Amino acid sequence: MPAPNKRFADFASAVADIPDGATIMIGGFGAGTPHNLIKALYEHGARDLTLILNAAGTGRDPGPGPAHVTPSTLIEARRVRKAIMAFTASTHPSRTTPVEELQEAGEMEAELVPQGTLAERIRAGGAGIPAFYTPTAVGTELAEGKEHRVFNGRTYLLYEALTADYAFVRARNADEFGNLVFRRAERNFNPLMAMAARCTIVETEEIVPIGALDPDHIHTPGIYVSRIVQIPPDGIFHITRGAAGGAGQQGR
Amino acid sequence: MATQEKTRLTRDLMAARIAAEFQDGWIVNLGVGMPTMCSDFLPADRFIVLHSENGLIGYGRNATVEEATPYVVNAGTFPVLLQPFASIVHHADAFAVIRSGRLDVGVLGAYEVGANGDLANWKTSREKKGGGIGGAMDIAACAQRIFVLMEHTTRDGKPRLLERCNLPITAAGVVKLVMTDLGLFEPDGEGFTARELAPGFSLEEVQALTGAPLRAAAGLREVQIG
To answer: Per-residue confidence of chain B (226 residues) as pLDDT tens digits?
Structure first.
């Protein structure tokens, strides 16, 4: 019996069953953000969502292409009940983010987690580990109310693992079974989230037949992947800048 | 009497000076903002491995517009180039490098540094609910040492080097060296020891812009690279 083909025809059908109140992990860290799935979720209309992600990105303008739809777009549209993330404020203190505004107004909940702890909570969630200790944030305001424990003379904090109903992942390549290969820094949170969700949905630049990927070179095994969607040519975009320029340009 | 024109150090000079502290064989993480500029000023006679939270192990200088790809970016999401010895890991493994103490130094930006080595760089007021922690708390808590790269004073002229931080801290007692646009300083418990000062600035002038006692290190000199 052949392996199942997990290919979905389009993004809308891949996100169609996401209910209100779902918890969704969204990959990406500057690179590797599944913008096409985020855009489909925005158009799908699910509300009261819990998002687990590094940062919400800049939104404020849904714009013409998927590049302009970010988690921040969902947040501004009041579709997010809670976000668990490593940045609720901008790295530029002069700018205010929609998360900050809604959190101050009491309209949404935001849990701020140090980035390494966030990554490890997701990894633990995918690895069947309920909680772990980390030295990060000891002595800071984030440690208040957390269980402290000393190992070998050093103090650690207990953090619980994270899992989700869905994960949105972006990969360079997938085969039809959902084996994934990531490119460079696009990997980031994507393989962790793929393992920590009950339903992992992947957008990928290229879907190849089963057997075309070398098993030694697969980053995420297909057993963790439920759905794959090929990104159409106009959905492949990357915002690029470089030294002695800085203006955005689009390309592959 | 004409007063001599004095200028604070440029950001390039600050980045180059702190990068000159990197020792041969070090694994170095450069934080978002000014610290990422250090990748353009690595000492040519030393082997340095630059590590980024997003999983790059062994990147180099910033890419030009022609060289840039959208998928090789540093922690500030700016395009960089990979070294020939580079490897890529996922986010949890990138922080395994950090948490296991393998970073020889983390270079971070800051809002405030205390004389006790406390670092404050994630929240701009105690009252605000939100903040931008990113990877800074993991790096500050777990790297072998922390160097800070920041302006000596706030936009309205208030000192950032203080006896104790006013803002919520990122980690306690971790800062070993602070490079500002007025010089190079070490937190010494009661205040700061000035190792180098920006050209033309006296210890008294810099003391007036510092919120803790400033003393001169033996061999205090003008800022020098190399």
So the answer is: 445 568 999 999 999 999 999 999 999 999 998 999 999 999 999 999 999 999 999 999 999 999 999 999 999 889 999 999 999 999 999 999 999 999 999 999 999 999 999 999 999 988 888 889 999 999 999 999 999 999 999 999 999 999 999 999 999 999 999 999 999 999 999 999 999 999 999 999 999 999 999 999 999 999 998 6
Q: Is there a domain that residue B194 lies in?
A: yes
B190 is catalytic: no
Q: What tokens appear for B191 in the block?
A: 């205040």
Question: Does residue B4 lie within any of the structural domains?
Answer: no
Residue B3 domain-assigned? no
Domains of chain A, residue spans:
7-231
Q: Name the catalytic one among B21, B53, B112, B196.
A: B53
**B-chain residues within 8 Å CB-CB of A243?**
62-65, 79
Paired with B57 in beta bridges are B51, B87
CATH number for B166: 3.40.1080.10
CB of A130 within 8 Å of a chain B CB? The answer is no
Q: Can you give the pTM of this predicted structure?
A: 0.94
Q: For testing the chain B interface, which of A103, A111, A140 should be mutated: the one with the most B CBs within 10 Å?
A: A140
Inter-chain CB proximity B88 and A86 less than 8 Å: no
**Does any domain span residue B60?**
yes
Place of tokens 């630059």: B50
Fold of A7-231: Glutaconate Coenzyme A-transferase (3.40.1080)
Interchain CB contact of A7 with B (< 8 Å):
no
Residues 6+ apart with CB under 8 A from A11: A36, A37, A39, A40, A203, A229
Which segments of A105-154 does DSSP mark as H helices, in order?
A: 115-127
